[in-house]
Amino acid sequence: MQSADRKVKRAEIKLAAFIAEHKIAHAVIDHLNDLLPDIFPDSSIATNLKMKHSKLHVVITNVLGSLHLCASDAAKEIPTECEQLARDVYNHFKSNSKRQSQFKAFQNFVEVDVHKILRPAQTRWLSLSSVVDRLLEQWDALRLYFDSKRLDDRECREIQKRLNDPIIKAYYCFLSWMLYKFANANAYFQSESTVITEMHTKMRDLYRNLIKLVMQPECMLDDKLDKIDPTNENLYLNLDDIYLGLGVRKQLSLPEVANNENDIL
Predict the structure, then answer these.
(1) Which domain of life is it from (predicted)?
(2) Residue 110: helix, strand or coil by DSSP?
C-alpha cells in the first residue's frame, strides 16, 4: 500500500501532467492548490497538496536535470585525459588559420569530411556528445596531423600520445555510444510538444535499456523492474558478458589492447 506522502506526490505529478498536456497557464495551479482542499476537505491528499507554479515548473522540467546528473555522475569514472584531449585539440586550432589549413590537408588525405573541431564549452557530458562524435570522425586525420607535429612542443606531444592510445579511443567509442542514448532522451523531453504524459514510459524504457547492459536477463521482467536494486552486484553480468558497443569491441580486439583490457573495464 502506498504511503500518504507517496499518494500526494503522485497526485502532484498527475496535476502537472494535466496542466502541461492541456497547455494551461502555470499560474492556474496557484489557485487550484487552494481550491482543491476547500472542495474536498475530507481528502488527506487534497489538503496536503503543496504545489504552486514554481514547484509545477520543477516537476515538469526536473527530468532533464536528472538526466544530466546521471550522465555527469557516471562520467566521473572516465579518465580526465578524455575530456582534456577534447579541450587541448580545440585550443590548438582555435583562431589559428595556418594550423587549420595544415589540418585540412590531412583531412583530404584520409578522405574525411572537412569539419571543424567543436568547442567543448561546457563540463556537462550531455553537452559534449557532439564534441565526442566529431573527434571520432576526425580521429585518423588528427592522429596523422599530430604525429607530424610531435616534435614542435610538449602540448603537441601530449595530444599525439593520447590520440595514439587505443584505450583513450575505446573510452571515446563508449562515450559516443552511451551519450547517444541520453542525448536522444534529452532531446525528446525538450520537444515543444507535450511529452510529460509519456515521461514515465520513456524513462522506464531508458532505465530498462541501461540496466540490461549490466544485469542478468531475469531482472528485465516488467514485474521485477521496479524492485531491482541497481547497486546489488550479485545481479551483475560477468565483465566478459557486458556489451559496451561495437566501437569498444573493435578496440578491444586490437593486439596492443589485449594486455590492458582490465584498464578499460
Answers:
(1) Eukaryota
(2) coil
Nearest-CA neighbor of 85 among 21, 175, 184?
Answer: 175
Cell 555522475, residue?
Answer: 73
> What's the CA gap between 46 and 127, in Å, rounded?
40
Q: Could you give the dihedral angle defined by the CA atoms of residues 228, 231, 235 and 239, in that order, rounded to the nearest 10 degrees?
A: 140
Give the largest Cα separation in the chain, rounded.
Answer: 79
Number of other residues whose CB lies within 10 A of the CB of residue 154: 8
CA-angle at 112, arms to 107 and 118, nearest 5°: 75
Cβ contact 18:2 at 8 Å: no
Phi/psi of residue 38, nearest 5 degrees: -70, -35
Q: Which residue has the cell 520513456?
A: 202
16: helix, strand or coil: helix
For residue 196, which of 58, 103, 104, 80 has the smallest C-alpha distance? 58
- Could you report the per-residue pLDDT of 37-81, keeping only the tens digit for each? 899 999 999 898 888 888 877 776 666 666 777 777 777 788 889
C-alpha dihedral (131, 136, 140, 144), degrees to nearest 10: 30
Quote the CA–CA distance of 197 and 22 in Å, as a whole number: 11
Element (H, E) at 203: helix 199-211
- Look at residue 1 in the predicted model and tell me its pLDDT: 45
DSSP states along 215-236 = B-GGGGSHHHHTT--TT-GGGB
